[in-house]
């Protein structure tokens, strides 16, 4: 009977080498898959962060529109940037951007009626390398909220509000710039931190709103 293997030692060695090559190939494939998964997760987190930042700005823009339509606005036009238009005092420091040392805000969603409230914070999200817990975002029924629940996420959000000085070059380029008073223009910066594998990543989006 003819032997199947002419040289059993060489054949065994070839089998071992083949197994090693397959093992190396499988390890490389797993590495590529793991990198792809991590890359997809990073892209997903950045997309969520961008949407959360945009949402934070929209809350301020929509609140500004509601404040201008309020009856109290005619009596006190500066209340266009009030935290609470119904209890607006232009001397109370409750106008967006008036307190330069406490100019970070969070936007609070009421899931029951989808209404928003703006709250001034006593700390700054950028004060330390790690964002404070009071800026953390949670989830309720797949909605992202800034009220404490049992489902915390890795995202943190603040909206920083700064008054634009009349000396800012951007003011001179605007129509009727001579009529613009301090506090008529605000720069909003939505700041999102999100935890990655080793550190925190950061996303910022800016917008300018005005009393016009």
Short characterization:
The chain is α+β, with helices and mostly antiparallel strands and 212 residues long. Helix content is 33%, strand content 26%.
Describe this protein's structure.
It is a single chain. This protein is of the alpha+beta class. The protein has one domain (8-68, 96-210). Helix content is 33%, strand content 26%. The protein contains 3 helices and 7 strands, in the order H-H-E-E-E-E-E-H-E-E. Strands 1, 2, 3, 4, 5, 6 and 7 form a 7-stranded antiparallel sheet that branches. The N and C termini lie far apart (99 Å). The mean pLDDT is 81.
List strands and helices in order, with pairings.
Blueprint: H1 8-69, H2 71-75, E1 104-110, E2 115-120, E3 136-140, E4 143-145, E5 152-163, H3 169-172, E6 185-195, E7 200-210
Features:
212 residues; seven-stranded antiparallel beta sheet; alpha+beta
The gyration radius over C-alpha positions equals 28 Å
What global shape is seen?
Answer: globular
Unreliable parts: none
Number of helices: 3
The H/E string reads HHEEEEEHEE
Residues in helix, %: 25-40%
Mean pLDDT: 81
């Amino acid at each position: 009977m003819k032997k199947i293997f002419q040289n059993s030692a060489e054949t065994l060695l070839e089998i071992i080498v083949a197994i090693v090559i397959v093992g190396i190939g499988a390890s490389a494939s797993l590495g590529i898959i793991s990198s792809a998964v991590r890359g997809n997760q990073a892209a997903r987190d950045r997309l969520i962060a961008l949407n959360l930042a945009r949402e934070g700005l929209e809350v301020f823009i929509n609140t500004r529109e509601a404040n201008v339509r309020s009856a109290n606005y005619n009596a006190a036009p500066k209340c266009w940037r009030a935290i609470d238009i119904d209890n607006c005092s232009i001397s109370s420091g409750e106008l967006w951007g008036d307190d330069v040392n406490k100019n970070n805000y969070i936007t609070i969603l009421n899931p029951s009626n989808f209404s928003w409230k703006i709250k001034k914070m006593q700390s700054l999200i950028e004060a330390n390398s790690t964002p404070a817990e009071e800026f953390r975002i949670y989830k309720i029924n797949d909605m992202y909220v800034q009220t404490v629940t049992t489902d915390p996420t890795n995202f943190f959000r603040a909206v920083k509000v700064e008054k634009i000085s009349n000396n800012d070059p951007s003011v001179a380029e605007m129509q009727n710039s001579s009529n613009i008073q301090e506090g008529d223009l605000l720069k909003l910066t939505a700041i999102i931190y999100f935890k990655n594998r080793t550190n925190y990543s950061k996303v910022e989006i800016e917008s300018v709103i005005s009393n016009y």
